[in-house]
Amino acid sequence: MLQALKARNHWLAVATGKSRRGLDEALQTVQLHGLFDATRTADETASKPDPQMLLELMSEFGVEPERTLMIGDTTHDLQLAANAGAAAIGVSYGAHAHESFAGFDTRHVAHSTADLYDWLMRHA
User: Fold this and answer.
1) Rounded to two decimals, what is the model's pTM?
2) Which of 65, 76, 102, 108 has the smallest CB count inside 10 Å?
3) Under a CB-based contact definition with an 8 Å cutoff, are residues 48 and 15 in contact?
4) Taking the CA atoms of the chain, what radius of gyration do you get in angstroms?
5) What is the DSSP letter of 19?
6) For the chain, what is the mean pLDDT?
7) For the segment 25-44, what is each residue's pLDDT rounded down to a tens digit?
8) Element containing residue 121 per DSSP (H, E)
9) Which CATH number characterizes residue 34's domain?
């Protein structure tokens, strides 16, 4: 999925509550190090749901909120997107149950990686 998005010239970034060390270790473990165009961690900028980390990423790419999509598995992610003026997709197979996403304006709630991939290929 990530390779397909890159092939379509999408910029990929990570905005995480992890530390820099934690993110680097996670990306190395799943062999995704170097795939993302930019990353922000909670020890580098304000933590979620403060919009700062997403605003910094958008600024780095010169991208407006209307052209940004945050994909998240927590209400903190969805609130971060709302606070930054960006669209959001929730994924129900992560940290928070998808029922907790009801109060957020999500474009979609994906219930599997395949569901997320299908939505992104149709809409991104």
Assistant:
1) 0.90
2) 102
3) yes
4) 14
5) -
6) 93
7) 999 999 998 899 999 999 99
8) helix 113-123
9) 3.40.50.1000
